[in-house]
Design goal:
Number of helices: 11
Domain HTH lysR-type: 5-62
Order of helices and strands: HHHEEHEHHEEEHEHEHEHEEH
Protein name: DNA-binding transcriptional regulator, LysR family
Largest sheet: 9 strands, mixed
CATH topology of the largest domain: D-Maltodextrin-Binding Protein, domain 2
InterPro entries: LysR-type_TF_proteobact-type, LysR_HTH_N, LysR_subst-bd, WH-like_DNA-bd_sf, WH_DNA-bd_sf
Keywords: Activator, DNA-binding, Transcription, Transcription regulation
GO molecular function, one term: DNA-binding transcription factor activity
Number of domains: 3
Number of strands: 11
Shape: elongated
Length: 298
């Protein structure tokens, strides 16, 4: 049934299509760019249709190329997962997880020691980025953890942590709030949809007149910097209950009016459907569930 399929050419095409580059495919497959070009031309000749548009500095899939890529990528991924599952010691292997720098620094990395202890055979690479990834196109990333309200119907998803926002400060700063209007520390969000409720919403819920009193406001690009500013005593921060958890546990920050919160979104683990069965991915997802469930985490 499959004797006439040009498997080498198809594998070469998948690599070039996924990376939109003959050169990158050549590096991945350990061949020359000329060899990749020959394989692609042979496949196009065999099919009788063009698969790529050759542009001055890159290549782009044609509509037929897109159709072939989506079918081929899914099939090769399924074969790869099955082979991995059949190998001896299936819990070992490599795993690439992508998440935001702030979530990595403030929640994930402080807990990763327990994952390494439980799974010493898994080589975990953490990719920290705020860029959006197309997991159907980028097979180099196994799993992403992202924050937001967006749904991803084409991906396997696992909601990890729901959050709320509250006000926190260094112990000495919070102790003095009854006597003076604090400096308000906030974050300059790249996507306003992620955090429409801010200091105005919290002050309204708490009945605090800080904004009417024209409190000084300081903005930072990342939650990590905002929390560090609060730890340093620069003011109070409106922060995620998830990202502040380690600072609370260590006593570096304490809550102010913990009964007053505004809603946040959810941190979700995402992967290509079927990838959740890949042993290193499954091990990591299982570990995340345990961490989230431990002590009523965050």
């Amino acid at each position: 049934m499959f004797a006439n399929l040009p498997l080498t050419a198809l594998r070469t095409f998948e690599s070039a299509a996924r990376q939109s580059s003959f050169k990158a495919a050549a590096e991945e497959l350990a061949v020359t760019p000329t060899a990749v070009s020959h394989q692609i031309k042979a496949l196009e000749s065999w099919l009788g249709i063009p698969l790529f548009e050759r542009l001055p500095r890159c290549v782009r899939l044609t509509s037929c190329g897109e159709r072939l890529f989506h079918s081929l990528h899914g099939a090769l991924l399924e074969v790869s997962q099955t082979v991995d599952a059949l190998r001896p010691q299936p819990s070992t292997g490599s795993l690439t997880v992508s998440t935001t720098p702030t979530f990595a620094a403030l929640w994930l990395i402080p807990r990763l020691g327990r994952f390494y202890a439980a799974h010493p055979g898994i080589n975990l690479r953490l990719d920290t980025s705020t860029a959006l990834l197309d997991l159907h196109q980028d097979a180099s990333v196994d799993l992403v953890v992202r924050y937001g309200l967006t749904e991803y119907p084409s991906l396997h998803s696992q909601c990890l942590l729901d959050e709320c926002f509250a006000v926190y400060g260094a112990p000495r700063v919070v102790a003095g709030l009854a006597e003076r209007t604090p400096t308000l520390i906030t974050v300059r969000w790249r996507n306003s949809q992620l955090y429409d409720l801010s200091w105005k919403a919290w002050c309204a819920a708490a009945g605090e007149p800080w904004l009417e009193q024209r409190a000084v406001e300081r903005e930072y690009d990342e939650e990590y910097y905002a929390l560090q500013a609060a730890i340093g005593g620069q003011g109070v921060v409106l922060a995620s209950s998830i990202l502040v958890s380690e600072s609370l546990a260590s006593g570096l920050l304490v809550p102010y009016r913990p009964d007053v919160t505004v809603p946040g979104a959810c941190y979700t683990a995402l992967c290509v459907p079927g990838r959740e069965r890949h042993p290193p991915v499954k091990a990591f997802l299982d570990w995340l569930r345990q961490e989230v469930g431990a002590k009523g985490a965050p």
